[in-house]
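quick one, 564 residues, struct below
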Amino acid sequence: MKHLLLVLVFLLGDTSWGAHSDSISKMDSLDKASRRILAFASRKNFFNAQNCRAVLKDIYQAVYRIPPEQYKDIDKIKAPQKGKLGILERFFQARVVLRDRLYAFVKNREFKSHEELRSCSNMVQIAIRTLRNWEEYWSFHVMSRNGRLAEHPSVFDKKWPFTSLNKKYENEFNDFGFFRSGDVVLTRGARFSSAAISRIGAIDNQFSHLAMVYVDDGSIMNNPGGVYIVDSIFEAGLRIIPAEQFFSGKKSRLAIFRYRNIDSDGVTPAKETAKQAAKFLAQKAVGPTVCYNYSMDPDHPECMFCSQSVAISYQNACSKENIVCDDLPLYQQKGMPKIPLVHSSMEANKNFLIDILGIQSPYVFSPADVETEPHFDLVAEWRDYSLLEKARIMDMTLTKLFQWIERDGYHIGHERAGRLFSGIGVAGKEVVVALEELPPDTPEGFIEASVMIYFLMEHTGTGLNIDKLIDLPDQVESVVDRVNRHVSLGTHLTRANHANFERKGYFLTDYQMDVVLERLRQIDCKRFIEGQKTGFHDIFRPEFDGPIEEQCDPNPIYNYSELW
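---
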């Protein structure tokens, strides 16, 4: 292949990106590795629009698999000195640079087609996710060792290591007065459904909700200068609330983006386009109720899911006579809104949960698609470390559940799942509460899929008393026994995480959590085939046919880094 013939001199004598990835994977210093990664991202002639995917995949597979014990300088992770980048800041800055490189590729029309753009964009998203994982992993260690996990500062505190800022905005980002109409806020909640939303697309990501900022001009909220958030949620559909209320809710991660033009000439200033988009959405939010779009169908504008509302608002702004927006027909996805240029793909033929949820469109605007959308510039990121461990556990658990479904044909029979929960009274109520009190109009398929996901990843035996249950189904004793003895995948992984910290002084990396869950699956699979009590294979399994070694370990040389 052409890109294999490239000879690039990189930093300390590296002559190819393969050599560079090898040098990163062998680094014994976190400080050196973070410098090397930032230098790689900043080197403009190292990769281009055509070799983007191949280069980034090679680099970040190496980064993903590094064991934490390799780095001996964790105690050197400290707040940066004035004018200098610290170890964690280099990871963040590398992510900013990668986004800027993708923006430049689009601006300069370096991709030959939408397909080339999609290939590179997907790999940049994976690279950003991988770097953020390490950034949060080491931050979590620092906070844990210093006894600071209970801290919960405001997003505007700029307190290390909670908030990371793009250098372009660091002197402006001080309070709610920073916001402009049309800014968007990407979040990851603390609920288990947030993990499900962030993991259901073909490319895993770390966020689950997208909201828009509206700064009132006095015409809608009668509060000139007031900062509001407009978003669409399960419980209420499209709503508008004070920004202070939105930011005070529990969120494990949060990122802020600002709309920008790709073509600088001949278009309406980005600030005006964004202002019009936000005003349109705010007006919709104070009008007749706009229901939540559970099917995530982009052609169903009567109801809106969160990121769809952002796409519709900018589409509306660009349709106004006084607004001229970028025209990028070569890169826009046929039949989809102009923003984002790359929508997440939904592989319904591989994932039965997508079918149960009623998602029919092969492409949707996933909230995290804004991470690689060239029309938006990254302003800042913030995370709450008191919630981050659970978010990491849920992320990896959902990744594996969906991977087993798509790779190995795992499936939960509807009838089997129904028998498990139906009619067990108290347990049914507990499940409803655990499912965040979904509103009465929630589609049956959405509830059913949520129960299945919740049981596997979150539910650990509740100690149900059979004498207190009413309206019991047949064979209730076996049903209650099954519920009582279940230990969730999340519980298994949490225990392994803490055991590893006690033994080695490090929490599990994403790669190590991947290995733990894969081994758990193999052990539980063999128990089921041998007729023993299992953790989950009695309700969640493929159709077994053939030798045990082929069913329980279908690919002994499985590459654990291939999560995407």
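Residues 32 and 165 are 22 Å apart (CA to CA).
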